[in-house]
Amino acid sequence: MDLDPYIVQIDLYLSDRLSEGERESFEQMLTQSKDLQTELQNRKLERKAIQALVKNEYKDQIKGWLPDLNTLNKEIDRQKQAETLYMWIAAASVIILLISIIFGAWKEDASPNQDLIANHYQAPLKELNDVVRGETDQAREDAFFQARNAFLAQEYGIAAELWAGFPATDEAANYFLAHSYFLNGDYRQALEGFAWVADLGGRYEEKAEFYQLICYLALEDTGEVFQSILQAIASDADHSFQLAAREIEENMSAVDPDDD
Amino acid sequence: MKCPNISVSQQELLPTLQLGGAAMKPVIDTVVRDLCQCHEFLRTVIQHVRKNGGSNQDAEDLLQEGLAQLVANLYENKYRGESSLENYAFGICKFKWANVLRKKSRHMQLVDSDRLVKLNPADPSIPPSEDEEWIWTILGQMNEGCKDLFKLVYQGFTRKEIGGQLNLAEQTVKNKISSCRQQFSRLVKADPELHQYFSKN
Hints:
Strand content of chain B: under 5%
Order of helices and strands of chain A: HHHHHHHHHHHHH
Oligomer: heterodimer
Order of helices and strands of chain B: HHHHHHHHHH
Helix content of chain B: over 70%
Radius of gyration of chain A: 45 Å
Distance between the termini of chain B: 36 Å
Number of helices of chain B: 10
Largest sheet of chain A: none
Distance between the termini of chain A: 96 Å
Largest interface: A-B, 35 and 50 residues
Structural class of chain B: mainly alpha
Number of strands of chain B: 0
Structural class of chain A: mainly alpha
């Protein structure tokens, strides 16, 4: 078979540069001619050899085209060192965070109003020292001072239990009971206690009114009720906690994002 | 990965490769030279080699080998534009490095089949390719004129263009190519081992 007409076609076929029709007709011819198959096989080998030759030549050229890779390698080394350093810093941060959690230095549930509470809440130590009981019932007198001692020993749970045994009309016992709840972290009960004492209208009325605000702050509930009590105290020139209430008002308006 | 410095767009490159001819060489040379200057591409290849047990020298060798293979693929119209040229080139390098690692481990087993010795990852001694050894045996026996002619044909030059380059008539070029091809076939047939190897492959 005369292969001359196919010489160029074989090249085009091997480099996939024939149109679909040309390829089909070439492949048909290929199935019919053993000579063409042999020639195609030879040309594949030839191309493989030439490819190696061309690649070899280009490798030399590419070597000349590539920049000095030492600079790039140094840059990668520096990047790797930095990555290692970041990894160590991250690991150290995690360890510090874990230690903080374990030792309680990091408290997720810390109240955002903590500063206000710390500035305005005072445990009733002076009142407890000054309190004078004229109990006719010795057992009740003893129970009162037992509760006071527990409170002073910071055993607020025990103090609360003891004061809870006093009648609802006993203003002092209920006032200290509310404080015991508060210091024991039971803000909801403390709030109810102070509200009760305020309603009794005795000597602890104003204090109990004000400490209701402190309970609301601890509960992070500064809604309508809180605002109305705050305004009432802040606008009452005769109220002994007017200044404190105004301070809270100013603080709240400074942090309130809606108060533009 | 992006190489914004590549000055030939895919829209320009693909039709040139599809048509073939003398126009391919300057375009291929340009894109490969641009890739050589693309730091992002170079860094990606170097990092890949270093992360996979290779040295800086291995990375440099691989870049030369991988880009030379890219050149061959472009001449043979194997690049279809399915990914960007830089990603395609990185794919070639990754594939070649995987082959190097495979060959290293095969070579290691041949060297010491009873006791498996772990190769030093920094060892730059890449086992030679079996295929290439045969090819160089044949090429070593061919005359330089034929090799030059073959290269021009491979690079897509038409007989007429080759004639223009070598100051020969088109018919003379055809005759020379034909005689070089006969020489190549003779060399393959003359060595029964080579002949068997090529028949098998």
